[in-house]
Write a structure and sequence with these properties.
globular; binds FE2/S2 (inorganic) cluster; 7-stranded mixed sheet; alpha+beta
Length: about 1000
């Protein structure tokens, strides 16, 4: 049917198929700011304004929109500089989002802006509650909503004429947040007071206790605006699916309805005959190449146990056949015409059953390739046994031994941008893979044998990514589109639906964890043992390395005290088993949150049983600066371990600052504070967890960078690192700008394309700022050296002063400056080098691999209110004080902490994925699987306690993953404090809390 759509004041005549959504129609007309995040109207990413009202375009028919005025974010502002043409610049909302750090991946940003615009157009002076209610229809998985909410309040004030655009923070306000720390951290600050009290108050910056080094830098340590923010607020076509390609086919995958079955036959005759179908592929059509989907460096530290298509299915949702057709609807119709005959096999859903003698075997294929202790005959994907010291001796020396089992659930990453890939042959018959991935270089290497192409015939382009959280550290969908492009010769797009994200993508490994800890009466830990039974699902992607990190980080934190501190007794054993459930994989924190729920719940219970203060007990036994990371000599992700001394550890200061910020001393175990006047069914409680992570993988993770100077004195910085929304492009640019003595906007940052950018292992293990950052510094120093040499030559030529040694020239404000203040501008140097004299391209390439993985440390605090009649838990406040080394950009780093705490809050109280006895998933959409929305959020407070990590030129450590680790146990401990409910399993759902209260009453 032909319809006319009025979009941003422009009329489009278009053909709408029956049932075509408005989202689909808008995107086909090139309005890419409307995003796909689900199909059921739950995420809000697709929101547009129709006659000024916010509408989710994925559940609105295109035909319904005829005759109405549609507005998208492309219409509400423009880049402030557009050459000779005058620009009105960005809308105050867009500008506030840019300046406040409200954008992380930016996938939800257009919808948030439109939601906010709708509100302000109707109510110019909204309260924070009204803003939160309005934004509640747009789910964000990155930000924690704090900065978006503050941005809307600020923009509203600007539009009322009560605030100036661009004054989100001023230099004087910065002073309130950056607290000098010349060796003495000074008194801890109280609970976060707002910066200003006039209704336009903003609190987008965290409190930073700065290391002395930071004060000498101009770009590093500053809240610089993200390099990609301006394009993201305008809804520019930056993401993988925002791409037009003539002749594009749409891929769909037939999924297994059975948890375990052999495919006896597949009849695709009818599907292939359906008009509009270009290809149908089954296992009989593809070469049988075994591989792993885990996006990791070579060799993959895990078993090879997967085929693009196999003659066996191992979970409900496993692949059976691929279809490419002229439209997604035709591809769906073709799936229904494929006839499959299955021999249904017994299925293992409970991981306990997997190792039992006689259990049905998931992997009996002869091509299976073992890694270390994997043993498919026992359904064992990985096994680790680490003994540090002698735990049996330690238990014998203990006055008391505490033992208990803890359970952690399977949870989903839920990046709002689903997995999406477009593949096509280029003009040189090289296969281009444009994909939303965290690991472009691993995609290229790992897929080459699967596709029967040499690596050099594949080009992987990683555009903007709409969140990943580890879920896109997986080479999971690229092969589907690539096989179909090879089969048809045509471009193909494959995009997961939200249901596919839940039933076929990766998730966090669920575990059952047994803790056994020996302690002396004075609280000294004499031995600590953990056994983890981890469920990798149907395939062993990340099986070994995730489980290894569970022990490597959480069990390393408590070494004991006195003689035990010198020689700790720690044991970690894990079995990672196959079950007929969707595969687990990488998820922010990478096994460590699974370790800290049991460790920190266990430590809390022990300290209370001993009658000790839980903070004192933990600090007495915690790892300290100058000590050996106990696991460093025992295990290193399947590589050769090497000893590592902890050079920096700000944990004690984090505790001091965090306990003051949350008011621990006034609240902990304070019966008076715990009761809520007039509400006898409520109890308040407060809890703590201490955590550590790692920074990259030593002797393995490598990042590269190249920088070239242009003839206006600007620079192109090319990195293979992948910015998932973390802000890594920005912080890498800041480090380059610091070394080069220029402004961030003189750096044009590009990441990543396997043809043009240097290699990088990708975005995982919290390594980008550390590894790729050191590579950038390395490249920038080479460029700086060339600039100094040329400047010295130019000064000599110019005369008017003595000759200068290049070593005496420093770079500042885009100038090369001598000690006697003569200078040459970068603009002059760029032009001289490229056009005038002894021409050369000033350029530097750098790379970095680290011998160490310096851990960040943190103290996580939670305050909760528990309804003791229903078991309902409301988390009122989260405070996290973090030692992540030097904070390159407090805006982006605090965004990471806020977003991480929010994601961890779901892990603490509501997120879990459950399967029935036949392996069918209970959670298939964002209605059943709840993630936090803007109006449900607790107060969030972030405090950075800087230390200078000497193994990095700017002293950084990781920041991205550590906020995942401590929220769940801190909440669990706060619930215990509030009402005595002792929980061993997260999330702490009302039912679990209610049952724990009943148990307590019985006891
Ligand atoms: S609500 Fe429309 S894409 Fe999710
Ligand atoms: S910034 Fe909101 S989903 Fe990424």
């Amino acid at each position: 049917m032909k319809i006319e759509l009025s979009v941003n004041g422009k009329i489009h005549s278009t053909h709408a198929a029956p049932g075509q959504t408005l989202l689909n129609a808008l995107r086909s007309e090139g309005y890419y700011s409307a995003k796909h995040g689900c199909e059921t109207g739950e995420c809000g990413a697709c929101a547009v304004l129709i006659d000024g009202l916010l509408v989710n375009s994925c559940v609105h028919l295109a035909a319904q929109a005829e005759g109405h005025a549609i507005q998208t974010v492309e219409d509400i502002g423009a880049h402030p500089e557009l050459g000779w043409k005058l620009s009105e610049g960005l809308h105050p909302l867009q500008r506030a989002f840019v300046e406040s750090g409200a954008i992380q991946c930016g996938y939800c940003t257009p919808a948030m802006l439109l939601a906010a615009k709708q509100l302000i157009d109707r109510n110019p002076d909204p309260s924070e509650t009204e803003v939160r209610e309005t934004l509640s229809g747009v789910l964000c998985r990155c930000t924690g909503y704090l900065k978006p909410v503050q941005s809307v309040l600020h923009a509203a004030a600007v539009m009322r004429g009560e605030a100036e655009p661009g004054d989100m923070f001023t230099p004087s306000e910065l002073d309130k947040f950056f607290i000098s720390n010349a060796g003495d951290f000074g008194p801890p600050g109280g609970s976060g007071e707002p910066v200003a009290g006039d209704g336009t108050a903003i609190q987008v910056l965290p409190k930073v206790f700065v290391a002395p080094q930071t004060e000498t830098w101009k770009k590093v340590g500053r809240p610089e605006i993200k390099v990609d923010a301006v394009k993201l607020v305008q809804g520019k076509p930056a993401f993988a699916a925002d791409f037009e390609k003539r002749g594009l086919l749409f891929a769909k995958v037939l999924k297994s309805p059975h948890a375990h079955a052999r495919i006896k036959s597949i009849d695709v005759t009818k599907a292939r005959k359906l008009a509009g179908v270009a290809a149908v592929l089954t296992h009989a059509d593809l070469p049988r190449v075994v591989y792993s989907t885990a996006g990791q460096s070579d060799p993959i530290p895990g078993p090879l146990d997967m085929f693009s298509l196999d003659n066996k299915v191992r979970f409900v949702g496993d692949r059976v056949a691929f279809v490419a057709a002229e439209s997604a609807e035709i591809a769906e119709a073709a799936l229904k015409l494929i006839k499959v005959e299955y021999e249904v096999l017994p299925a293992i859903i409970d991981p306990h059953e997997a190792l039992k003698p006689g259990a049905v075997r998931l992997h009996d294929e002869k091509e299976y390739v073992n890694f270390e202790a994997s043993d498919p005959s026992r359904n064992l994907a990985a096994h680790i046994h680490i003994d540090i010291g002698d735990v049996e001796k330690g238990f014998a020396e203990a006055d008391q031994v505490f033992e208990h089992e803890y359970v952690v659930p399977k949870v989903q990453q839920v990046s709002i941008e689903p997995h999406v890939v477009i593949t096509y042959w280029d003009e040189d018959d090289r296969l281009v893979i444009r994909t939303s991935t965290q690991v472009p270089f691993h995609v290229r290497r790992q897929l080459a044998p699967v596709l029967g192409l040499p690596i050099k015939r594949i080009r992987v382009i990683k555009p903007r990514i709409g969140g990943g959280f580890g879920g896109k550290q997986e080479v999971m969908i690229e092969d589907v589109a690539a096989h179909l492009t090879i089969a048809t010769g045509r471009p193909v797009i494959y995009e997961y639906t939200r249901e596919e994200e839940f039933i076929a993508a990766r998730s966090r490994h669920p575990m059952r964890v047994r803790m056994k800890t020996g302690v002396k009466k004075d609280g000294t830990i004499t031995a600590n043992a953990m056994y983890a039974l981890s469920d990798t699902g149907a395939y062993g992607c990340h099986a070994l390395t995730v489980a290894g990190n569970t022990g490597h980080k959480s069990m390393a934190l408590y070494v004991g005290d006195g003689q035990y501190r010198q020689k700790p007794n720690i044991q970690f054993i894990t079995d990672v088993v196959y079950t007929n459930t969707p595969p687990s994989g990488a998820f922010r924190g990478y096994g460590v949150p699974q370790g800290f729920w049991p460790v920190e719940r266990h430590m809390e219970r022990i300290s209370r049983a001993l009658g000790m203060d839980p903070i004192e007990f933990r600090l007495k036994n915690a790892l300290r600066q100058g000590e050996l990371q106990p696991f460093s000599t025992a295990w290193s992700e399947g590589r050769q371990p090497s000893p590592e001394i902890i050079q920096t550890n700000g944990l004690e200061e984090c505790v001091r600052q965090g306990r003051a910020a949350i008011g621990w001393d006034q609240k902990f175990s304070n019966a008076q504070w715990q009761v809520v006047p007039g509400k006898p069914y409520l109890r308040k409680g407060i809890g703590i967890a201490m955590v550590m992570q790692g920074t990259a993988i030593p002797y393995l993770d490598m990042g590269g960078a190249s920088i070239k100077m242009n003839d206006d004195g600007s620079f192109n910085l090319l990195v293979g690192a992948t910015d998932l929304g973390t802000g890594s492009d920005t912080v890498l640019g800041q480090m380059a700008a610091e070394v080069l003595g220029t402004s961030l906007d003189n750096l044009i940052v590009y990441s990543s394309d396997t043809d043009f950018t240097p290699f990088d292992k990708g975005a995982y293990a919290s390594s980008t700022t550390y590894i790729s950052g050191a590579a950038v510094v390395n490249a920038a120093e080479k460029v700086a050296e060339r600039i100094r040499i040329r400047a010295a030559r130019m000064l000599k030529k110019r005369g008017g002063g003595p000759d200068v040694d290049p070593g005496e020239i420093h770079l500042e404000n885009a100038r090369a400056i001598t000690l006697d203040s003569r200078f040459i501008t970068f603009d002059e140097i760029g032009r001289d080098s490229l056009h005038h004299d002894q021409q050369e391209q000033i350029m530097g390439v750098g790379s970095f691999v680290s011998p160490v993985a310096p851990p960040p440390f943190a103290a996580q605090f939670a305050e909760v209110t528990v309804d003791i009649e229903t078991g309902m838990v409301v988390v009122d406040k989260l405070v996290m004080a973090v030692d992540s080394g030097i904070i390159v950009n407090p805006l982006t780093a605090s965004g990471q902490i806020e977003g991480g705490m929010t994601q961890a809050l779901g892990y603490a109280v509501c997120e879990e994925m459950v399967y029935d006895a036949k392996g069918k998933a209970r959670e298939r959409d964002l209605r059943d699987y709840h993630i936090f929305a803007a109006h449900e959020m607790p107060d969030l407070e972030t405090i950075f306690v800087e230390t200078f990590e000497p193994s990095h030129p700017f002293g950084v450590k990781a920041v991205a993953e550590i906020p995942m680790d401590g929220v769940a146990p801190a909440v669990g401990n706060a619930i215990l404090d509030a009402c005595g409910a002792d929980l061993f399993e997260n999330p702490t759902t009302p039912e679990r809390v209610w049952r724990a209260l009943k148990e307590r009453a019985k006891a």
